[in-house]
Amino acid sequence: MSLNIRDADKSACSIVLMSVPTSLLTDRLPSQFYYLYHFHTALSWLEERYGDLLSPAEKEFIAEFLRLPRSSQALLVRLIMRRGQQFRAKKIRYPEVGSIEAAFGALIELNWVDPNPLLSIDDLAKLITRAEIAELFTDLPASLTKSEARALLRKTHPESRSFEEWRGNVNERVYFVAVTPLCTQLRILFFGNFRQEWSEFVLADLGIFRYEAVAFSKDSRAFCTRRDIEDFYTLYDCRRRLHEEEPLQEVLAQVPKSSLQHEWLESRRAKLLFQIARQHERSGDREQALTLYLDCRHPGARLCAIRSLELDGRHREALELATQAQQRPESSAEAQKLERIVQRLERKVGVPAASHRIAARPERIDLIVPPPSSGESVEQIALEHLAENGAPVYYVENGLINSLFGLLCWEVIFAPLSGAFFHPFQLGPMDLFSPTFRVRRAHAFEACFDALDANTYAARIRQTFSAKHGTQSSFVAWSLLSDELLHHALICIPAADLRVYFERLLDNLSDNRSGLPDLVQFWPSERRYRMVEVKGPGDRLQDNQLRWIEFCSRHHISVAVCHVRWAESR
Known about the structure:
This protein is an alpha+beta fold.
């Protein structure tokens, strides 16, 4: 197949075509239709991957779309990439489409576009300017803003009319794209999330980066039944309504009542309930928020329930729930917060304070230096002062340990498990932050860790570094990881340290991928290293940084906190 596309997209598309089925792609597209090529790619992917699960309406749309003239296809894709469903004719200009009116013809014939829709005042206000509102409704006070004018007109003009009826003798059309909701469903089914838009798909995901080619199969697809897809659509609609500030009880009534069998969808349902609970709390309905928090398994919901009880003055109930949570904390982050909460609640209820552990005291380095004159960061200043001949220092922050983990466990991370990958342009699996991420891959991770015990890990990491260099990853920071840094890390960081680092990452990827010390210093001749967190004047250690420092101290890993202070001028 030959595709004539923009020069800027040529390398990206060669990557895409290695991973994407091409049975439905157009044979040849001129360069100005690059966005249409990408839309064809998405439809092809959905047809190949979910052909047996698509609804009759979705199948019919794909078939009819591919039969449309190119100009009509291009116009529809342009419009579904824009916000809203109604568009004024004079604001639709796409030179490559040619005659806009002619391109609309086939879309109107399929009833995908309404050329004369009925518009409410709210619809009309989205299409015209404040000055045009003043021309149409001359009795409106000139001092009103557009939103104030719309609120007033909503009361006096509750009816819906066509654009021509609202505007009188102005000869202009408004087009309503009726298939936008269906295209939205296809978009979220392709991306597997509620965030990415078609425009991101065109401008970012396909035009710039190189992605790992995951070996997709029917068994590894994200959804296995039509019920899964319908639940996914329902959760999306609930999230949309919540974002648009519809009544919370109405949104809550639409959320599936019982836990979903599909693990990833259940995590989405839990997150949605957590977000609804937070909205109730912000609106002052703490009782409803507490009910939802207590029934929600989303990370952080239990802490919110404890704090809600505390804010209501129900200190004993809060203390009881907090002490129960301490028996089985969901993460080290929760354990850290619970310890502070329990101490505070014990004081409030007047019970004898239990003994609490003493935080680790890392090595302290004090640097008193002249204030920077060239905008250098405190990390760079500390790096320059700590570096010695034969003991280089690198600014790595979270990048080094995460990258080493990503390189060692590359094949495990990109394993084509069910529900892990929705489309060929992912940085990592969709269930990356799921509590069962490690459980589902337990044997494969153990095989990686066996390489640490067998001392074959360094060769494995170097091989992946060479073979996958530049391929997008949720863990590997390619711009940070040089040959020199990798060489020193593999010489100086013992396999035993790497193992405990990686174990902690997998314990809670959401929390533990960040908070690592800013700098690392190597002594290659002695095969040892030191992690260094840098703090400037007035800066303090954050919770996730404290947890990493304590972890390093507990495992006898050399760690220091470097406090940078400015020398007083004479």
